[in-house]
Design goal:
single chain; mainly alpha; 80% helix
């Protein structure tokens, strides 16, 4: 993929997410759902912006630079489920997501710091 296409694709994805969130917010039946959608939208926008990494020439570093915000976004979205969700099974899954992602973030950073020779 050519690098000059990435910002346009990212803008289209952000616009799509914004429109999706705006439409969902308009249909929200409760203030809890509205708050959840707002939190989730903010988490997605933060994640998508942070994942727009300028290639460094180091695949491993670029992978970690993109995956850390991706995992943090999952944590943020799962926290919204815990805050507003009512389904016990989904709340349990959200907690598992938080636990797993919070372990994987430092594991990736540590693995990157201990770069293996090529």
């Amino acid at each position: 993929m050519q690098s000059h296409l990435r910002p346009a694709r990212a803008r289209r994805a952000a616009l799509f997410a914004l429109l999706l969130a705006a439409g969902a917010t308009a249909l929200a039946a409760s203030s809890g759902e509205t708050a959840f959608l707002a939190d989730n939208h903010a988490a997605m926008m933060k994640m998508m912006k942070a994942m727009q990494v300028k290639p460094s020439g180091d695949v491993d570093a670029d992978f970690v630079a993109m995956m850390v915000p991706h995992h943090q976004g999952a944590v943020d979205m799962a926290r919204s489920e815990l805050r507003y969700g009512r389904n016990a099974q989904l709340r349990h899954i959200a907690q598992d997501i938080i636990t797993a992602q919070q372990q994987q973030i430092p594991a990736m950073q540590e693995a990157l710091a201990q770069k293996a020779p090529r």
